[in-house]
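CBS domain-containing protein: C-alpha cells wanted.
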Amino acid sequence: MPFLDVAHTLTREQVSAVPVVDADDHVIGVVSESDLLAKGSP
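Answer:
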C-alpha cells in the first residue's frame, strides 16, 4: 500500500498503527505513525 494510503487509513480509522499482512493474512509487521514520520513525505 502506498505511503499516503497508509496515512489516510491511520487517520480514517483513528488508530496509531496497522498490521502488515502477507498474502495468507499472516501478520508480518506493523506500520505506525512514527514510522511514517521517520520516513517523511512521499
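Strands lie at 17-21, 27-32. Residues 3-39 form one domain.

Cheers.
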